[in-house]
TrEMBL record:
Protein origin, superkingdom: Bacteria
GO MF, any single term: helicase activity
Keywords from the UniProt entry: ATP-binding, Helicase, Hydrolase, Nucleotide-binding
Record-given protein name: Superfamily I DNA/RNA helicase
Residue span, UvrD-like helicase C-terminal domain: 3-41
Any Pfam family hit: UvrD_C
Family matches, as InterPro entries: DNA_helicase_UvrD-like_C, P-loop_NTPase
């Protein structure tokens, strides 16, 4: 889940594509029943990971 990979350039081509990619991302992170591992390079994570972290802490 590195920045630049998620969302991809293809996802950024239109607001609709970006919304759909973000929706699919959130669907995928809510599917695991016990555990979810998200892998990214140090200090190079997707902005969606930061948003997900804030939401999980109740800041959003």
């Amino acid at each position: 889940m590195n920045a630049g990979d998620i969302p991809s350039n293809r996802d950024k081509k239109s607001p609709g594509s970006l919304r759909e990619a973000r929706r699919l991302f959130y669907v995928s992170v809510t599917r695991p029943r016990k555990e979810l591992a998200i892998v990214f390079q140090e200090r190079n994570y997707s902005p969606w990971i930061a948003d997900l972290s804030r939401r999980s802490k109740g800041d959003a």
